[in-house]
Amino acid sequence: MATPNPEAAATAPTQPRIIDENTDMTTLTDQEIMRLVEGMGQEDVTEKPLISAPVPLLVIREEYLSGSPTVVKKLDWLQAHGWDQVWRARGDGDCFYRSFTLAYLLRILHSPDPPLYANLAFESIQRVLPMMKQVNFDPDLYEEFLNPLLEMIQSFSPQNTYAEPITEYALIQALQDAERSNCIVVALRLITSAYIRTNSQAFEPFLLSPTTFLPLSADDFCRQEVEPCGKEADQVQITALSEALGVAVRIAYLDRSELVNEEGINWVVFGPNSVSITSTTSTTSASFAVEKVGGGGVQYEEGVGRGVQDEGVGRGIQDEGVRRGNRDEAGEGEGKGDERPLTLLYRPGHFDVVTKDVLPII
Questions:
Q1: What is the CATH number of the domain that holds 140?
Q2: Total domain count, the chain
Q3: What pLDDT band is residue 24 in, cutting at 50, 70 and 90?
Q4: Positions of the region Disordered (predicted)?
């Protein structure tokens, strides 16, 4: 029988561990963070549903019990303040766009007047069409990709007698259809790209390669980091899409950042009515802010553009001047009318939808 060779065992290469939405970010090394940014080390997710039915937030909490106590406290705060449902998106690099779509449609479904808010959403998409034409996108192409999303929005209209009644279950079923869901992802990517290209002066100070961290032109950034499916969204893409469609996006970050009064969570806010960020080289309207939410309500942090970079979350948008926007207390997200933000949950390299439990429409 051969005896083990301790020296060989010590020098044998170790396999990189799989990093996904269930990984405790407090255990990530610098090398793993870089691999995550580069899209390496991910498990095969092709068998997972594109969008899943909601699961209790407690399910996510169970995954962190043996990990970071800080993350568990933040999950407990979300649970205590009613954010008790998570709608999971497939971790294929398109999770932000899939989560955005579901949250966008859920906001219409649970609005006081779904047909009215569906019309507002339809009009907001129509307003971006000239912008897409301006950047020389093929109208036949982007209209074909937009049609599935527009059809889903129009299905909220009472005049749409051919559609099944819209329920949470119906939305999930529709978005689990690969052809429909992927068309919507492409459409949102094209909207995002068109907005960045037509506002290039505002965004160019923040357009960096995620691998080299070198500056990119708006055209190169969009070709490399926005338009290809499977490319993860970062703060620039989130800002551009939220601004283009006129809808605020608020993201709960599960990270190691300091808690407020030993409780709370950091909400990163993008889009209309959030904190506007400017730099010394531009007057961008790109909106980005961090809300620290705890027992004392919302506290606005000055100078937070790089705040999440240290946690391996993203490259950040630099901020030189900050303007406060209107915010509801304690991050409740119960704004009136079309000002209600979409609420997402961020874990390492992954986005899901987080919502408050509501009586289902059946």
A1: 1.20.1300.20
A2: 1
A3: low
A4: 309-342
